[in-house]
Amino acid sequence: MAAFAPPPGTADIFPADAGTWRFLENTAAEVFSGYGYGELRTPIFEYTEVFQRGLGGETEVVQKEMYTFEDRGGRSLTLRPEGTAGVMRALTNTDVANGTEQRVFYYGPMFRGERPSAGRRRQFHQIGVENVGRCAALIDAECIAMLHSFLEKAGITGAVFTINTRGVAADRAPAEAHLREYFSKHISKMCDDCRTRLERNIWRILDCKQECCQEIIDQAPSYIDSFSEDSKAYFEEVKAALTALNVPFKVSPRLVRGLDYYVHTVFEVTHDALGEQIAIAGGGRYELFLPGEKKPLPGVGFAAGVERLIMVREALNAAVPDTAAADCYLIGLGADARMKNLILADKLRNGGKKIALELEERSFKAQMRSANRSGAALTVIRGESEMEKGIAIIKKMDDGSQCEVSENELFDYLLKHI
Predict the structure, then answer these.
(1) Which of the residues in the chain have pLDDT under 50?
(2) I need a labelling partner for 263 at 20 to 30 A (CA). Which of 46, 165, 282, 407 fits?
(3) Cα–Cα dist 315/273, whole Å
(4) Which residues neighbour 206 within 8 Å (Cβ) at sequence distance 6 or greater?
(5) pLDDT tens-digit series, residues 7-28
């Protein structure tokens, strides 16, 4: 039978790799729940207007990267390109609009029709959080500190945290005028995308990674100087709180993130293992308009790319949890032995043990090969001779040593030794 590869930009995740994925998800749940966050699961597709209004119609995600289709009723639906808009849509069905704080975390697949790159496929996966309903500099700082804690406990040390401020809506017009005056003088030397951004979304110029634009961007004046004193004070409070929480960071006035909904604090996390231009996580504070809502909802959150987290862990030689390995393998020769092993496996599994066994009639040699592949520390061997004697042979797979255990003592022995 011919092998079929998954579609470009997607990948199969086999049991040998799934252990790391589960480890990251479990670590996230453990850390985030300690900060009062609960898990929220939303659909992988939403009505298209959720993203158009939430992310901004002029963003490149909405303009170029979304997978959009029509349902049978003619409504436009889109596979989620990111997690925040769907989470916010869900939370509008709670009392968050009345100022009640909601803290949630999520993980799952996202979809963008862009050129696949290192750690970013067309179907990629994110772990993220959203704190919705309140706005305060200390909430922003706590969110960044939580991300720092998650990465450390996930075995990702040495990450670089970069932060900046986007100010508030009232700060945008003077800041944009400041930037437009500068970039208009140099736009002829910049890439085609930046020429379009000059008129449609000038903030995206600051996010450009093209070499021909980098030097011009680096010499741009600081737009933060045109922000209000309140906005500057907000950012100073975020920085002071991060320092008090011992979270290392650097400030980059060029960091804006790519979505229109950001206000005040924005942040990005990179790691030298992947290069300075590749983010492993990022987020910030935002105000999000959703269909049917006249006022924006305030929130702060982040998303971390699971594929990129795994790449960094591999570069750091972090231990890979082997969740697929069995605790014990049961070998049975003959119908009676296989039936006894089936019953024993059920009892051990109910006791919390991971058991693999052979339920098909196969040779002893073939079954031992399977036992070796299982990763089990112990193998139980029962054939006709052992059945007649009322015993089982226990083999330690690391040194090959063996012992006999009576049928009556076998279950308790295995519970104690695996």
Answers:
(1) 1
(2) 46
(3) 6
(4) 179, 217, 220, 254, 255, 256
(5) 989 999 998 888 899 999 999 9
> Residue 186 corresponds to which tokens in the numbers above?
């140099």
Q: How many helices, marked H, and strands, marked E, lie in the chain? A: 14, 16
The Cα–Cα gap between 382 and 12 comes to 37
Three-state secondary-structure class, residue 152:
helix
Identify the DSSP state of 159. Answer: -
> Which pLDDT score is estimated for 322?
67
CA distance 140 to 138: 5
**φ/ψ of residue 253, rounded to 5:** -70, -5
Per the document, the length of the chain is: 418
Cβ 392 vs Cβ 344: under 8 Å: no
Evaluate the CA torsion angle 340, 346, 352, 353 in order and state its sign. Answer: positive
Whether residue 266 contacts residue 284, with contact meaning beta carbons closer than 8 Å, is answered with yes
User: Within 10 A of 48 (CB to CB), how many other CB atoms are there?
Assistant: 17
Residue 393, SS3 per DSSP: strand
As a whole number of angstroms, the longest Cα–Cα distance in the chain is 93
Residue 123 CB contacts under 8 Å (≥ 6 apart), including other chains: 9, 10, 11, 109, 110, 111
DSSP 82: S
Q: Do 129 and 104 touch, CB atoms closer than 8 A?
A: yes
Which phi and psi (to 5°) does residue 68 adopt?
-120, 140
Amino acid in the structure at residue 356: A
d(Cα 107, Cα 129) in Å, to the nearest integer?
A: 9
Confidence at residue 1, expressed as pLDDT on a 0 to 100 scale: 42
Mode of pairing for the β-strands spanning 402-406 and 391-396: antiparallel
Residue 384's contacts (CB-CB under 8 Å, 6 or more residues apart) are 333, 334, 336, 337
Contacts of 413 (CB under 8 A, 6+ apart): 394, 405
Angle between helices 306-315 and 15-34 (to 10 degrees): 110
Q: How far does Cα 181 stand from its chain's mean position? A: 39
- For every residue of 103-134, DSSP letters joined together read EEEEEEEEE--S--BTTB-SEEEEEEEEEES-
Dihedral sign for Cα atoms in the order 329, 334, 339, 344: negative
Measured CA to CA, the distance from residue 326 to residue 328 in angstroms comes to 5
pLDDT at site 58: 62
| Chain centroid to CA 360 | 40
- Would you state the pLDDT for residue 337? 95
